[in-house]
Design brief:
The structure holds two protein chains of two kinds.
Chain A lengths: L2 E12 L2 E12 L3 E5 L6 H8 L7 E6 L2 E2 L4 H6 L1 E4 L11 H11 L4 H14 L15 H13 L5 E5 L7 H13 L5 E6 L2 H7 L2 E6 L2 E6 L1 H8 L3 E8 L2 H10 L3 E6 L4 E6 L6 H10 L3 E8 L3 H13 L1
Parallel strand pairs in A: 3-8, 3-9, 6-7, 7-8
Antiparallel strand pairs in A: 1-2, 1-4, 4-5, 9-10, 11-13, 11-14, 12-13
Helix pairs in contact in A: 3-4, 4-5, 8-11
Chain B lengths: L1 H19 L1 H34 L4 H6 L2 H35 L1 H5 L6 H30 L7 H27 L4 H17 L2 H4 L3 H10 L1 H9 L5 H24 L5
Helix pairs in contact in B: 1-6, 2-4, 2-6, 4-6, 4-7, 4-8, 6-7, 6-12, 7-8, 7-11, 7-12, 11-12
Classes of the chains: A alpha/beta, B mainly alpha.
Chain lengths: 311, 262
């Protein structure tokens, strides 16, 4: 397995403020990794260091085998970077902007036109080629940012909050775009939108207050950190009696009546509760309308981790 | 080779931005209006004096002064240098400050181009814009050749001085722009520093001795003055080139520091 990003005790102080604290992680080539954390957790700082814009106070980062500080130019040549808030040159047209980016990235003069065309098509920018970048809508601006990152097809893409501030349909478009990069690129993206990360990413790194609190696949995280499982039931019967009966099943820690005969049952551990719950209901002669296992969402995990940190 | 490409990419981008924004046209317009006005009044004055001298039996000392280099070009170059003082900060204040303010610095410095390529690309773009302005003033001399004989050597030397002085001022302005993310602050700092290097030689007139001599050597104006006389002195050349290099170097240092600060 080829390693694309490898950091060792990466630390950054802004003056006296600690932004990231001894981050060590690895990203394999071809992975799509989500970088998750509340605002101010140090996501952007980490990505800026990886992109070669900032130097770490201590620790090292290697990208594509090159040290981010000593071999900055080689590192920068092997990545495409979409900074937070997508900075653009407002006085250049979309094509002029991409021409500049292509030249700056050292795209061969002969391939320049076709390369620009390729990213314009990939990002759906054909209709705004001659529009000034400053006049673009937020969605197009985001796509332009993504397009410049894709120029010269760098092996690594670093995307800082690629879908922030977009409307739902634009978010879907950008996500599809990122999803299409799977296989050909390694992608490291930061986000605080949890469903996005669980949809897009092979692996999630959750950081809080500059430290890694968890790193695993979205599914594993939900399973391990959800502390048990949940079952939703809908039962036709006397509510308080049903609740009492459900509570009596071995392993159940909590029964929360929802509305109109619906209940949420939580248990500890990996215990499979559904057969026992079903039996408990049917044995009493009540009608079981619905029975559904529910996984903890990444959202629960995230809140869990971040609040555990704080308490 | 690679950094040359980066430098050219920057140069092209900066020129595109110059031509797409009003600052180029506004500064160019007023520069040419002022230059044209001074040239016209100088020529007018010169022709009146010449006419008077022809009518009266003039003394040879006055007659020696009566040539276009002395009467038209020297005052013109002197006044253009003053115009430059105001013009250059306007041309350079955007260059780096705006990249920082709008966040595009983050793009620029994560592209695989060296800091030097960025600095030179930006410096050369401003220099090229300035040369375009100067090129327009060449038309005055062309017009004047129809009516009088010109000393092209002296005029060329004056222009060389103007180019070097402009380049020095642009390097200083670029440095000022690297200090801040506010264009106005960059402009004011650039102007103030230029003014300082302008008048620093005045100390000598107050009789400050050895230190005064040193200050005078630092003065942009004193070195420029030789060029307007039609004199190319190696000391002046060395001074201008090292002035340019010094401020580009400071700019480079300033850019490097961003990685360590936030």
């Amino acid at each position: 397995m080829e390693i694309m990003i490898e950091t060792q005790d990466l630390t950054k102080y802004y003056g006296p403020n600690l932004a990231i604290d001894r981050l060590s992680f690895q990203v394999a080539a071809g992975e799509i990794v989500g970088f998750l954390g509340p605002n101010g957790a140090g996501k952007t700082t980490t990505l800026k260091i990886l992109a070669g814009y900032l130097s770490p106070t201590s620790g090292t980062a290697r990208i594509n085998g090159f040290d981010a500080v000593d071999k900055s130019l080689q590192v920068r040549a092997s990545l495409g970077y979409l900074p937070e808030n997508v900075p653009i040159y407002p006085d250049l047209t979309v094509t002029q902007f991409l021409e500049f980016a292509a030249r700056a990235k050292g795209v061969e003069a002969k391939q320049e036109r076709s390369e620009i065309q390729r990213v314009e098509e990939a990002c759906g920018l054909e209709e705004v080629r001659q529009t000034l970048a400053g006049a673009l809508s937020k969605g197009f601006r985001q796509r332009l940012g993504l397009a410049q990152a894709l120029l010269k097809a760098p092996p690594l893409l670093i995307l800082d909050e690629p879908t922030i501030g977009l409307d739902p349909s634009q978010i879907v478009e950008i996500r599809t775009l990122i999803k299409n990069l799977e296989g050909s690129h390694t992608v490291m993206l930061s986000s605080h939108i949890l469903p996005e990360v669980s949809q897009l990413c092979h692996r999630v790194i959750i950081i809080n207050k500059g430290q890694i609190v968890a790193s695993d696949t979205p599914e594993n995280l939900s399973r391990q950190l959800g502390h048990g499982s949940r079952v939703r039931l809908a039962v036709r019967g006397p509510e308080d009696k049903v609740a009492a009966a459900l509570q009596a099943v071995a392993g159940v820690t909590r029964v929360a009546p929802l509305s109109e005969g619906r209940f949420l049952v939580e248990s500890d551990g990996e215990l499979e509760l559904r057969p026992q719950l079903a039996r408990a209901v049917v044995d009493q002669g009540w009608e079981l309308l619905e029975l559904k296992g529910q996984e903890f969402s990444l959202e629960d995990v995230f809140l869990n981790l971040v609040t555990e940190e704080e308490s | 080779m690679k950094s040359l490409n980066g430098c050219l990419a920057l140069l092209r981008k900066e020129l595109t931005v110059y031509f797409a924004t009003p600052i180029f046209y506004i500064t160019g317009f007023f520069f040419l209006v002022l230059a044209g006005y001074f040239f016209y009044t100088n020529v007018l004055y010169y022709s009146i004096i010449s006419l008077q001298a022809a009518q009266q039996a003039s003394n040879p000392q006055v007659a020696a002064q009566l040539n276009p280099t002395q009467m038209v070009y020297r005052p013109l170059f002197a006044v253009l240098a003053i115009v430059l003082l105001f013009l250059v900060p306007l041309l350079t204040m955007r260059l780096l400050a705006e990249e920082k303010r709008s966040g595009t610095a983050e793009l620029l410095f994560t592209y695989p181009i060296t800091d030097w390529a960025v600095i030179l690309g930006k410096f050369l773009s401003a220099l090229l814009v300035y040369l375009i302005f100067l090129a327009f003033t060449a038309s005055y001399s062309l017009a004047l050749t129809f009516v009088t004989r010109l000393d092209w050597g002296a005029i060329g030397t004056g222009y060389l001085g103007l180019v070097l002085l402009g380049a020095a001022a642009l390097a200083l302005g670029l440095f000022a722009s690297s200090l801040t993310e506010n264009q106005i602050v960059a402009g004011v700092v650039g102007f103030a520093l230029l003014l300082l290097f302008w008048i620093i030689g005045w100390v000598q007139e107050l009789g400050a001795g050895g230190l005064g001599k040193a200050f005078q050597y630092l003065s942009l104006l004193d070195h420029y003055d030789n060029f307007t006389k039609g004199v190319i002195d190696t000391r002046d050349l060395v001074y201008c080139l090292s002035f340019i290099f010094f401020f580009l170097f400071l700019t480079k240092r300033q850019l490097e520091s961003r990685r360590w600060r936030a």
